[in-house]
# Entry
Amino acid sequence: MKIKIPGYKLAVLCAAGILAGSVNLKAQTVIPVETSNNAMVLQVAKNKDLNIIYFGKKLNNTQEYSQIPGIYKQSEDYTGLFNSAYTPAGSRNLVEPAISVTHTDGNNSLDLKYVSHDVKKISDGVSLLSIVLKDVVYNFEVTLYYKAYYKNDVVEQWSVIKHHEKGNVTLQKFASANLHIQAKDFWLTQYHGDWAKEMQPEESKLTHGIKTLDTKLGTRANLFQPSVFMISLNKPATEDEGSVLYGGLEWSGNFRTDMELDPQDNLRIISGINNYASPYELKPNVEFATPAFWYTFSTHGKGDASRKLQSWARNYKILDGKGSRVTLLNNWESTYFDFNESKLAELLKDTKKLGVDLFLLDDGWFANKYPRNSDHTGLGDWEENKQKLPNGIASLIKEAQQNEVKFGIWVEPEMVSPKSELYEKHPDWVIKQPKREEYYFRNQLVLDLSNPKVQDFVYGIIDNLFTKNPTLAYIKWDCNAVIYNAYSAHLGKNQSQFYVEYVRGLYKVLERIRAKYPTVPMMLCSGGGGRVDSAALQYFTEFWPSDNTDPLERIFMQWEYSYFYPAITSSNHVTDWGKQPIKYRTDVAMMGKLGFDIVVSKLSATDLQYCQDAIKNYNSFKQVIWQGDQYRLANPREGSVASVMYIDEAKSSGIMFNYLVNNRYDEKSRVPIPLKGLDAAKNYRIREINLYPGSKTNIDGNKTYSGDFLMKIGFNPQVHAGRTSVVLKIDEVR
Ligand code: GLA
# Structure
């Protein structure tokens, strides 16, 4: 029997299967989760275990999946569980479990058996497979979900856990997904970082045992490590070659991903909420839904995988992913906390002069009893500071309107300063150990979002701002502290629920905000990129990759972020960080969502002219950067020149950014850089833009090249010490 669902094919095969280690003549149910290029194939074993028998490129004939296990002659799996689709603990299992529980009677065992499965079409090209598993002894069940996005080769996987026992069951571990992959070798690319050093890649061969990527920071959970990773199969994948899986967890709190190379040399990936300090008490008949783990897979290298992922993110994940964005001028680095109405009035004029859409007022505008004049005070007291802003935000917005620019504002609503009226009024809203000394991160503490009253308060901050100022056009939502001394006065004896309930509380607030203000742009900031993930981006239109805006650093950082997030989400600001000229800084910031955080009035006349022209140029091709396909052409880690291009869907209009990333003597682009993603049969003209006033280019913009030539031979942007940043516009000649 074969069921075909448009857009996403799920075949249920009842075949006489030849299974690993044994010849099995009984009917086996095979459930392939297929997308346009790939398959993850599940099989119900004779004993009703649900196993994974294949992960990789899909086969032409789905009937053949059941033959795969028979041709592997690996060592014995004594447990029959190494390739479990959701490994239960405490029965036959000998490896890392996906789920581990303590039943009402104190028993720790679980053995999950297949009961049924179902598939639903969600929309064109999106289907949802659900598989019910039940324990044979305890009244305990898990439903596994596989949401397949056919065209993008992306699958989201999660589980829903429930039971009907008499009393609470403790979930000791409760993963979202469990994968099982067979290959000769596995190479992991993971990321680490710290403030101003986000997204530093490391690649290593996985050896036997378990490699864990995790965080225990509670908020801004990615500060040291994000959940995103890549696994290359057989050998390290390159930009255009090799088999590579990308994965990440849709959870803005503690996560844990275990990668276990098992005794049979296969890779087991188990990802979910971190169970650290979090044994979860699950009441009877209540569902515990884990967050989704997403993955994509390509046999054509990292570039292909990232383009599929970026397209998926724009189409299905990011808030307003297909929409537009605003360019802006931010005042953080030009004023810090030191501003008043007249200073801001000047900055509003500068916003207009520069030619960006919006002025973003940063930290320091609020609190009166403990004015926010430094990062030691005032967080939590969200009334305008009367000394700095005697006429309130409303008058600033009016002033912005007179200058024909929009107005946005910074908030850090989850936080509280020890010196604040909020702390004085509601000490029980603050996360801290009652009997221990307070310990601060950036001189502040975190509010207890597991408490519904705190959720109301945080929602109210945003709601009040919009209610009082309906034309407020942008929010920068910051989150600068991690959680120390995790303790919630609200949760009392249920402290082990805390880390999970914090994130749920945060999402509840964001849901409410988006229900009332569906599309107003919001930047997800976290003293840098300590927070971005695919769950948070469902509520935010963009994120702040790092406080480090040195353009040289940003070339490397944005390169790595771009594997996982499309350019439209990357807020890149031109600042005074770094030693590069304004052109270099602006060109780098253009590879995403452009903004500025500089003192416009201090720019030289030509620097200002350059910026104004560059913004006009950006406005003319930003859609290609935001919605087009990104191709990484020259890796800054592998040579002296970095090069990235974006091309529209029609392959007729593109833009190529090129930078010198090595200042040693005579470093330059010696050889042409092959372009990618063009139409070989089309002809193109390449013209240099973003030229600094008064400078000339040797590039002859009237020459025509075929796509074939540009992709096979390439183009030399003529980058050298005298031309450290070169932006090229690629246009089809008809
Ligand atoms: C964080 C952000 C900065 C700025 C400051 C304000 O560090 O990353 O952009 O908003 O907070 O305090």
